[in-house]
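User: I'm writing a tutorial on reading structure tokens. Could you give me a worked example: one chain, its sequence, then its tokens, then a sentence or two explaining what the tokens reveal?
Assistant: Sure. Here is the example chain.
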Amino acid sequence: MNLSNRLLFKQIVLAVCLLVRVHAADYTDAYTHVPGQCILQNSCGSSLPCAQNTSDPITPDEDHIALLNTACPMYATEESVCCAKDQLQDFIKQLDVVKNIIGGCEACYWDFQAIECAFFCDINQHQFIQITNATLNATDSKTTVFGVRYFITRDAAKRIYNACKNVRDSISGGIGIVYVCGSADCDQDTFYLKLGDNAYTQLKIEFVIADTSTVDYVKPYTDKDIYDCQDTVNGKTCNCLDCEEKICPIIVEEDTTVNWHYTLPIGLALCLVWMVVVLVLTFRHKSKRASNNTEIKSVGAGGLDNKAAELNSPVSIHETSNGQNDNRTSPSNGTSPTRPNNVPLSPSLSVASTISPLPNSPSEYENKSLITRKDPLHQFWLRLGPRIGEAWSNIVYDYWYLVLLACFILTALCCGGWYNFRITTDPVELWTSEDSVSRMQKIDYDSQFGTTYRTCQLVVKEKSPSTFGVNSKIVNGVFNPEFLKQVYDMMVEIESLNVGDVTYSDLCYKPLGEFNKTHPKEDCATLSVFQWLDNDRSLLDNPAEYIKRMELCAEATALPECLASFRGPSATNIVLGGYDAVKLNYMDSTTLPVTFALDGSAAKLDDILKWETAMKEYLLEQIGRRPDLKIAFSTDRALEDEIDRASHADIFTIVLSYILMFVYVGVTLGDMDCSVKGCLLNSKALLGVGGVVIVLVSVVSALGATSYAGLPTTLIVIEVIPFLILAVGVDNVYIMVQGIQRIICEKIEREETLNSSAIRGMLSSMMRDVFPSMILSSLCQMVAFALGSLSFMPSVQNFAYNATIALLMNFILQTSVFLILIRVDLLRQLSGRLDILCCMKAKLNKPDRGPVKWFIEEFWARYLLLNKWIPAFILIFFGCFTIGNVMLIPDLKLGLEPTMALPSDSYLLDYYHIAYTDYRIGPGVSFVFKSRDGTPLDVYEDNTYGELISNQNSLLKTIRKYGESPSYQYIIGEGSSFIKYFSDSWLDSEPCCWNDGDEFCPSIKDRSGCSVCPQTNITTDTKYQYLQWFISDIPRTDGSGCSKGGAVSYANSAKFSPSNRSVLSGRFTSSHGVLATSHSFITARQQALLIAEEVNSNSMVIQVYAYSSFYPYYEQYDTIVRECAVNLAVTIVATFLVALVMLGFQVYAALCVMLSVTMCAADMLGSMVYLNIPLNAISLVNLLLSVGIAVEFSANIVQAYTTSKEVGRTNKARHALRKTGPAIVSGIAMTNFVGVIVLAAAKSQLFVVFYFRMFFTINVLCVAHTIIFLPAFLAFLGD
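And here are its predicted structure tokens:
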């Protein structure tokens, strides 16, 4: 809301007329008309000209020429002129006023100068001026002129009018010449008539527009010095909005779609290069891969049973890293179990044999097992993990009660932080760090100027647009009296809403504030078209009159009859909407907004929040009661309330998502069996629930631990962390359970005794096998997320802290508590007790494999790597897919649309739609400036205003320069400046500044005994005093006094230093254009910052910053691209380093992990473009989540590859896929898919876009890279 528009009518008419009357002609029919002689010189008082008989022209000296260059540049090169220095000095003052009105168009401003300067400077002035009324003053023998005729050619008059007819004044934004005409219908004849004859001047000027004259000596003024509005004058051109002859460039929102013209050829070229590289490598390794393929085909062609029959050795199928049997000694009898050679292998064992076909001798097998490098360090690291796993398993088994106690104490300590737990939804806390520039500027702005007001807005449209005929015109239906009466009635009823004993009048914002102690209701800053009608409903019964009044006020909001009850204007772009933004045909408006301004003080906040709630309930009721109206509204708290409602509305969806994941884990964790009892016996439902509970405990512990440090929790953490920990935790759960199930199957095949005494060995064997991959993936993720906390964005930092602690807790609890739960479940299973129904028993048999496990082991792992061409094709496809996505990354959008966070049935959606399409003005912007304490006022004024010595780099002129540039469409005009209005309007207006000694005489009080403030030889101290008086002066609206006081608009716009009598800080206000998208918000902020940066680079006196309420939220986009790149790079490099160490310093293996993770991240970034997912803090957190999931997937399969006992790259890759693929697909992928799909039904677009669409894509990409690309890559390039 811009409350800085002033009362201009009297000022503008006086200014325009003074240009003429101060320098009117000294010519009557009684005087001699001598060519080359001046007839107009000097002044006869009261700004009326003196008539002179012939007078010699003045030959200008150096000072005179300097004044001419400023006032009348077209006469600066003349040898002689008729205007004296004092006349030029007065004229310069009046030109400053006129510049406020028409200075936006240099051609119009020049034309005004030309016609006025010709009037009193041209030595041929006698040819086009005729005195019609003059009076001789007997006292001083001077002849005072009261009336003249000004002859002007038709072409000159037309060109001047056309150059100025569309120019808007810089103060109110209305058409400048409307203030002269006093009517919206300001044609050429009316303009010249009102310009010369009005109630505000004694001098009457009759403009005679003709090509000839009946008077012999009259020669009308020609257009020799006149410019059209499209002409360039002094290097400046008229703004296209002020000149209909100029075509405004069509301002189109920046096209952020993919530029296929450039990216497609580059992407195709890179894909072609990649394809050639892969094909060359394929043919190069043809001979070497042929032998491997022959072996694969012989095994895959039905030789599984034959291969198994060759295994007559009693060596166990799962050997340790040093070639020893995992179950070297049976705990029961101390002997190695054996199987008769004539016992046929079951399908399960046949598959196991295929996974690890052993050589004929242990020595040969050992030489070709996982130790591919012979250096001791490499062997040490690879053997360390299994040994730690085995040792830790034995400790947990032997001292399970101490382990449980330790875990309970650790969890309790972490959860103890919940006493300090708090959730923050404050966007400032979420998106900006405590030392961020925007946040510091917000604190500074609030401390200096405070939160002035809150706004509630009602917007009303017709559901079925119509038209209305009045005054021989057709206007839109929103001006129909019946429509207006309905809107007026709603406005009055809203103002009548009470909260207990508190009324709207008690809560509303009153611009006069402390200056008006009576606080009448009429002083509330309620903005609507009804303010133009004095809030008088009875005027709506006369459409002809109120339409005429609205037409006038729409063009000239600062006219006295158009001012609001709070003594300020109701700006047209605030009270009307839907009109053409270029043609500005206001009566074509389709929308009527009504804005209620509420006090922004914290003391009234509780009552204001209740009043806003009452307004919302009332208008929701009106939507149903008025079916012919389209009613939309918003309150200051509406967005936060609707986001909160959306969160509560989607709680059921989120809970259902987690429940389905829990159920899925419980159902699929165990093995399949044909019988019901067998299925329940091998089921792991309770164990799965225990695993999920451990995941939740990890999340709760992390939230508690971070709360110790006073870190607030965000909704992002609550919504994302459980998915991350579930993904990682469930995968480990599946790996551990499937590992123990595999051991049970092997023992059943060997007909070994399965009882409680075998559990210790089974657990140690399982941990020896899975612990290295668990610690590898967990450590990679923890280090990556810990480094992610280096981000400057609080929401990302918070996520990183919680993710790191949750992953650590999850790893600790899974390797301890969950291991104990597996022990308990083994006791149940080996004793034949059913899962859930523990009182019932069944016989333990070898279970069947589940469909996922069968598919991966029997089909996918076999045919994915069947020949050399399949991996080559996979590499080509994934390589080109990644290249294409990388090409799309520059086209990634930034931002977060406000409507995304709203529920699909929110009433705010209609409001935002209308605001984006129908509003013609956006949020306000303040340019806050600070000067050094003691800076002289004139120096300060020059750096902010720049008119004293014409400082073109001053703040105000810089704002004007950018505001008038079509390239900066998000900054509107030069805005409002207290120092400019003080210097140009209040100080130079005779009725405004009155004093009684050192005491100011306000405009609204009796000025008896007061005198006009001295206007000459004003010292800096005196001007400082005048400035303070101006800011405290309340404007009058009755025409009897000063209407330009600054109390309404500028009471809180400056901070003074009484000791040094200078201005410490202040603000100039302007407005942004309509901001409909995140891109427009980001660009608008950048444009405002550019203005401040330019002023700071040119001034050594003041420092400027731009501030608007939305700036802190959008500061993140200054650095989010860098934040994204740095966070992803750091986490990926950290993953590589940890993998390098944990994989025994095998560089190639670590590079494989990093490559897969990098490709997943790059593909996700590219996918965000065509999935229309913008980059913001939420998606950045999800990108880090994708890195974590990709690490979990990739690390497990690469670990299995490096530890495989197979010979050859293809066999090792197939073994790794068979070993880890089922756990990856069943564990992470399917669990997340089950939970994520439910989120598609969420009411909030935020959940649909960032938690369904993005999570789903992350899972698809990670699974594809893990079970398709990575095995093919390992088989193709190997070690």
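What the tokens reveal: The longest strand covers residues 1062-1072. DSSP finds 44 helices and 19 strands in the chain.
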